Amino acid sequence: SNLAYYLATPAALPKAWARTADVFMALGDSHRQRILLTFDKPERLTITQIAAIAPLSRTAVTHHVRTLEQAGILVAEKCGREVLFHIDAELLKHTLQSVMDYINDNV
């Protein structure tokens, strides 16, 4: 079956699922989930602003923000001397829709 193949060969995930896997892996951490919940629509925040709200050190916040950025969930935007982050809502919508499409078609 397809499931047995993909479980035995994790690197063999379909290319269309590579970004989906990155998103879900990044969202698998409760600290990163809390960081996302600090953003109001369409808010842009700096690491300093996120760290002021999060119960984590600035170093830990930076690590989690970078992980979310690498997964494409957060987008960095240079604004003068600051870097502002915002959520890529379209990426999240597309990711969730891909999962829903798979469920509707295969489950």
Verbal overview:
- This protein has helices at 2-8, 15-27, 30-37, 47-53, 58-70, 89-106, and strands spanning 74-79, 82-87.
- With 107 residues, the protein is mainly α.
- It has a two-stranded antiparallel ribbon with strand order 1-2.
- Strand 1 (74-79) and strand 2 (82-87) form a beta hairpin.
- Helix 2 (15-27) packs across helix 6 and helix 4 crosses helix 5.
- The mean pLDDT is 87.
Shape verdict: elongated
Query: What's the helix count?
Result: 6
User: In total, how many beta strands?
Assistant: 2
Assembly of the depicted chains: single chain
Helix content: 55-70%
Distance between the termini: 14 Å
Tell me briefly what this model is.
The chain has 107 residues and is mainly alpha-helical. The chain has helices spanning 2-8, 15-27, 30-37, 47-53, 58-70, 89-106; strands at 74-79, 82-87. It is 62% helix and 11% strand.
Give the secondary structure arrangement, pairings included.
Layout: H1 2-8, H2 15-27, H3 30-37, H4 47-53, H5 58-70, E1 74-79, E2 82-87, H6 89-106
Antiparallel strand pairs: 1-2
